[in-house]
Amino acid sequence: MAGAIVLVGGGKMGSAMLAGWLKSGVDPTSIYVVEPLPEAVERLAGLGVHVLVTPDELPSTAETVVFAVKPQVIKVVVPDYRFSADGETVFLSIAAGCKISLFEEHLGKVPVVRAMPNTPAAIGLGMTVACANSATGEDQKARCQQLLEAVGEVDWVAEESLIDPVTAVSGSGPAYVFLLIEALAAAGEEAGLSPALALRLALATVRGASELASRSEDAPDQLRADVTSPGGTTASALEVLMAEDGLGHLMKRAVLAASARSKELAG
Question: What average pLDDT is seen over the chain?
């Protein structure tokens, strides 16, 4: 990737993306990180990238500006990068709930990509869905794809409104899985297992089942059926989980609630 990459924000998600870029072979001297927190500055500088406290000293030829700051401050931060709004620079945002129109309001009709990653990006196993505005060219989309792929899988949607259900399924999804692990381990304890063994079994089972589902040519419902012997232990458990008010019903309610809240936060 030729040209400079500006990363605005060196927090958890920004640092995860930065680590992925460096691991994929991006030249650290082409990366400029704008991060005002002193403790983060020292950590980031050790990676060989340029670290600036303010955007004043940034190059004017950045190919990509990545906003990885909290949504609460995005309206204050974005106007500082108007100097790069020349139509050649693509602005990539991973700020949750911030619409493309927000960036167009402050920067003009420039190339903007809104992306929704999730926390497994911290270990290179993230899932990101992105949406580009009409000013974004294919080469600019490819540039963003390359940066996002450094921390996991990437897909695109044409309609920005779909980012809300994406947020509900994928962005918030890791929390649902963590809750499943908690609940499965707690149930194991209730059945008589030690806390350590119950948690180990829950973690290994979720990890193994996820990997099996990812690698298998069979759909999840078929994999579930393969584990379920008629009249067996799994069938007894699934009678509870697949009841009318069971897991499917709860998950649907949860995703719809998260999607509705995502719309509210976006305004």
Answer: 94
